[in-house]
Structures are given as structure tokens and as C-alpha cells.
Amino acid sequence: MLHNQDDALEVTQEAFVKAYGSLDRFKGESSFYTWLYRIVVNLAIDRKRRDQRRGTVALEDRPGGGEDLEADLPSQRLSDPYQQARSRELGGRIREAIDELTPDQKAVIVLREVEGLSYDEISAVMQCPKGTVMSRLHYARKALQEKLKDCL
């Protein structure tokens, strides 16, 4: 969600500190995993909003930055330079399109498509009904499809 390993590590550390300080408020109504995941998602969203207000520029947004993010893509292992360049370009455009989504849509896309959580798990993490998760996911996918229609 943050596109920056250092920010992600800071948010993770902050989440564990916050969770530890709030253990007495954990009611056990959901699994510990989803409770902790929700703390992390909330902190990541807060970090993104704070950075946008401050006008922070991530390293990936600078020329030559963020190339390591595409390193794990299967197509990057291809020897064809054209395919490598195309894959990098497509990966960048997908990230830009995801970043343009609302925070709730972005969170649901990342939780479902990147993290592989089920609708029920996402519902617990985002503290909203399963139908709301499905609706947000539908509209997020529709928005991404519209933003990326010229890429395919």
C-alpha cells in the first residue's frame, strides 16, 4: 500500500507498538490476525494521507526509482528487453491507477488481489459488511479497468 519498504517497516513497527498497548482492548470478537491487520491498514492509510498533505515524494516517483518493485515480476526474468520494458511500464501504470483509487477501494484491492484475503477476512479487517467489501471491490476493479483500458 505504501510502495516504500522503509515506510512499510515503520508502519509495521508502529502497529505492533500500538497493538501491544491496546491488548487489553482486544475483545476476541475477531481473530487476532484480522485485528492486527486492521491496525496496520489504518496506519498505512493515515501515513499515505499525511504524506499527500505534506507533499512527500516517494523514491519510486523519482526518475530511476522503484525499479526493484518490478524485480519479482515473472516477465522481468525474460531475456527480451522489449518485454522487460513493457512489464516495467505496465507495472508502473497499474501502481499509478491503484494510487488514484479512494483509500477504501485501494485497501480492498490490495487486501484481495495482493494479500489474497477472503471477503470474510477483508470484512473483518475493514470492519464493514461483506457486501460492502464486494461493492468496493467491484467499483475499484471497474475504476482500474477504465484507467487501464488503453494499456491492454
Topology (elements, then pairings):
Elements: H1 5-21, H2 32-54, H3 81-99, H4 103-114, H5 119-126, H6 130-147
Helix pairs in contact: 1-2, 2-5, 4-6, 5-6
How would you portray this structure in words?
Helix 4 packs across helix 6 (130-147) and helix 5 crosses helix 6. The protein has helices spanning 5-21, 32-54, 81-99, 103-114, 119-126, 130-147. The chain has a domain at 1-65: RNA polymerase sigma factor, region 2, helix turn helix motif (Rna Polymerase Sigma Factor, Chain: A, Orthogonal Bundle), CATH 1.10.1740.10. The radius of gyration is 17 Å and the shape is globular. It starts with a helix and ends in a 5-residue tail after the last helix. With 152 residues, the chain is mainly α.
Rg, nearest Å: 17 Å
Number of helices: 6
Rounded mean pLDDT score: 80
- Classified in CATH, the superfamily of one domain is RNA polymerase sigma factor, region 2, helix turn helix motif
CATH topology type of one domain:
Rna Polymerase Sigma Factor, Chain: A
Are there runs of 5+ residues with pLDDT below 50, and where? Answer: 59-76
Strand content: under 5%
N→C terminal distance: 24 Å
Q: Roughly how much helix do the residues carry, as a percent range?
A: 55-70%
Q: Structural class of the helix and strand makeup? A: mainly alpha
Which sheet architecture does the biggest sheet show?
none
CATH class of one domain: Mainly Alpha
